[in-house]
Amino acid sequence: MTSSLSLRPITGWSGNKDYFTFREYDKFDPEAVIDVLDGKVAGVMFRGMVAPEVAANISQRFWDSPHRKVRGVEAPGYYIGAYTWNKPTGQYLDEAEEANPILRDLLDVPNDPMKEFYAGLGSSLAKRGAVVRPAEHEGRSAAIALFRSWHGRGAFALEPHDDDSQCSDPQMADFERNRVFGNPIAALNICLENEGGGGRLVYWNIQPDLESKRRLGVEYTGSPYPHECLVDVESKWIDVHAGDVYVFNGAHVHAVEPNTTERQTRTTLAAMMAYADPQNVVTWS
Ligand SMILES: O=C(O)CCC(=O)C(=O)O
């Protein structure tokens, strides 16, 4: 049962108006992604970065795949890939090892947007003496991506959550990702389909502090934050269309708005990344 104590407003860090914005671009600019990694801006949106036929081709491959799985109550929907949330390192890496060949096969298409994204980001980081690569542990690697289609039927298709709490999960203390904790978490999302209305990203101007996370029991999971705790927090509702690629600081509480009808589907291809040290941006899913 939720106590009135846990429903107190969330406290934490909020950015000023120069920071708390989603900068819009009409083509990919990897330097803008580095601004998110550096914590200079909350989010960046590359409108129409993926051509409609490429997005449609990849989303069709997702829906047709025999490897598509159902995800449970914490984030209802369908997915292909592996996710780190609330599990030990060994389990995640086993799942990543199984998922990576499937993901490579699904993305073996002309103009793979992940390849384009990492090639651009890699070149920009190289000028700073840094690389982007999957997080590792004892010679094993993180999953390269995660396909998802959220289908929560409540106030949100995906409940309000943050992406940085899980980086301090003791179950994964030995995983290289643990080194990113405290740095901005850049959440990469490539929208493959979102026909009709709804499906916006809801993004609150708060990075919850440890006291709030502990009070709500989300210190290591970052999920879910009760809606009641967020009503007074500034928010942005970001329109998302097929072909858009967006990157935002996942340490802020965020959620996904439901589509307007149950038959609509909103499918994205995602990964997360952050500096483990000044020379290494590591990725995971
Ligand atoms: O689909 C989106 O726009 C955001 C997804 C998200 O919040 C997540 O995967 O943590």
UniProtKB/TrEMBL annotation:
Protein name: Fe2OG dioxygenase domain-containing protein
A Pfam match: WelO5
Keyword terms, alphabetized: Iron, Metal-binding, Oxidoreductase
Gene Ontology molecular function terms on file: metal ion binding; oxidoreductase activity
Sequence ranges assigned to domain Fe2OG dioxygenase in this UniProt record: 136-275
Superkingdom to which the source organism belongs: Bacteria
Family label: Belongs to the iron/ascorbate-dependent oxidoreductase family.
